[in-house]
Request: fold
Amino acid sequence: MAIIERPAPTAPILLRAPVTPSQSMGIVRRPVTSTGWKSWVFTVDHKKIGIMYGVFAMFFFIVGGVEALLIRLQLAAPDGKILSADLYNQMFTMHATTMIFLFAMPMAAAFANYFLPLQLGARDVAFPRLNALGLWLLVAGGLILNSSWFLGGAADGGWFMYSPNSGPVFSPSNGVDFWTLGVQIAGFGSLIGSINLIVTILNMRAPGMTLMKMPVFCWMILVVQFLLVFSLPVITVALVLLTFQRSFGATFFDVAQGADPLLWQHLFWIFGHPEVYVLILPAFGIISEVLPTFSRKPLFGYPFVVFSGASIGLVGFGVWSHHMFATGLGPISVAAFSIATMAIAIPTGVKIFNWTLTMWGGKIWYSTAMKFAIGLIVLFTIGGLSGVTHAVAPSDTQQTDTYYIVAHFHYVLFGGMVFGLFSGFYYWWPKVFGKMLNEKLGGWNFWLMVIGMNMTFGPMHILGLQGQPRRMYVWTEARAGEGFFNFGFWNRVASLGSLILAIGILLFLINVVHTTRKGKPAPLDPWDARTLEWITTSPPKEHNFDRIPVVHHLDDFFHRKYQEDATTGTMVQIATGEQLVRDEEANADAHIHLPSPSYWPIAIAIGVGTLGMGVVYGVPIMIVGVLIILGSSFGFVLEPSVADDIDYDPPMSGGQDTKELAPLG
Amino acid sequence: MAMWLFLGSECLLFGGLISTYMLYRGRITQGPRPSQIFDIPFTSVSSFVLLMSSLTMVLAVTSAQRKDNVRTKLWLTITALLGATFVGGQVYEFTAFYNEGLGFTTNLFSSSFYTLTGFHGVHVTVGVIMLLSLRGIISKDKDTGDRPEVVELIGLYWHFVDIVWIIIFTLVYLIPA
Reply:
């Protein structure tokens, strides 16, 4: 019932009988504090929600990283004894699941939530409470997923959880149940979040910002949200079928009854392949902001970058079966999917060229953010090229389920996505926290990650081509091979590399602690940036902008600072970022009314979590969950989007405040 | 617009379920065949009831746009009643099938049939709850937004659920396996 967050210009009923929260549900007053833990738990502020997404994702990045290190330690020497075969299965399953669903997607959501409204010149997202609901559903899903470690063992079927292997016969522990429910609930969270962000982008841009004047980051987020809206329901179906099979005895994946083992694979990969673009495109968006800023040039071929991003999204829906070349689909489908997969390399290549040409001839400033962005271009290109070799079906059948695949997707996901996110950390840290991350530590951070990453995943190409299978929990000296292709040597290199990588990431965490305690305050415009988020204070005020900016150009902030000199044809600085921010403060809007915090998003999420646990532990708990959901949904719907004056503490004087969040249209 | 996006997403949800059903409809190793248990006249009547509820929903939306609260409430109630009738028919039908030996776990056809139609039934039920809540909100004058738009959005959802039923009815009941 999102409509209530919209300004309601004609709401005579509302004026006649003002709805106070205490009337709505009769129990509680709205939370109105702006400090302390309540201000976070019940917030609807997109910036606080963004930071919470970030903290949550970072926590699970560390969890997933520890899982990865345990895997590498197990494989560092022949006949590894650190993990049992069973525990090893759980470890790689949860490593992948955690990194994808609990780190990568939430971290992208963190950036999207925080910066989308700021880059669009809006005061908040379109549906602030749904935004909070998305976050808390994700938290509920993450907790359910990881609670399995303590409740009889985690899921062990791989992140793709192929059925019938994940059915009750072959996976008797509750791990898979927790996995399906956790992913399901986190998926609902993403779905709600993506609907919210699409509406925000399409409806809440600042006046004058046409779609083609919108920053590339926003464009990429838009594409990602469309991918999510149309791919998440498919995995929902797959997960529902699996849950019904496991918990209620349905027969969907029961081969004895004639079930088709490929059904799960198709449903999963129709979601799973768009998902990889969901992971990478936000990183593309981030570096499309970072590269122009630090090259001091506009992005080369903006429309090409935008449309190639959109076409990656579109074609991304038509390539899922390349994950299934080894299943015997038949020559025609294999050829079609093979060609489609190769075709997707074209828009990706276009982007690489555009980024390179953005740097070409620019005055490049090698800040840490820029180093990570360049790192992405190089490492992603390597991963992309090995990806094209998978598109060739005959070659793929050789590579399927070997370490070559592991090498490929870690180059694109770690070298691509993670580097992009780190670039974003260094670029936007001063904006979010008002302090500069230490550049010297940042340099160490970057180089250790580059070395560690290449040492870890580079040798996996060799291991894979030599035939080391994925998900193998030990290797033996007797079958390790000789000379250059010795398994043992390259496995040791990879394990050593993973330690270096871990140290690199540890340095980032040290940098964060160091900056928080001793970092110097950031200038208002430390990077001479180009987009609207820099036209306000750092960290931004609760209402983002003192006055809603009116946009005339792509990279409007840059064009407010620089103007073309008519005689020489060069760009001349006419104002500094500081001056522009002061100017905005001097001309602040008189009436700014923001949406008020709410209990209901987290209440609904608790209900959904309870329902999920009920599927494992019995119907009574499910009923409790459904009741909580129903009750809090009514609370959610009946609650006015803006608290009454008397709900503020101290009560606010009733004034002529407008209800606007941001102009629509 | 959010509702449109949500419905777009729902299309794929039902798309997935329908595909599963179409894949499995003929795979019956035990238990009765669909042609032995389907009661086409009965289901046609309940489908007709559901389709009529779309008409009454349209009437509710137009009344809401004319700010005619009495008529809006009336049409919302009738729509909800028609929806509830449909759900009741489905419950009856499920019970009858079950008694004829088609359990949820009997075979692939039954699992996918009950999942598909059951999901649709849950959607109708949620719709009925929304309609009745909306009626209650209007009579207590407690709505928190632009009323005609709220009615229209719920109407949108309702029509979507109806359209999905037309597809399900055709594919599941009318086309022989």
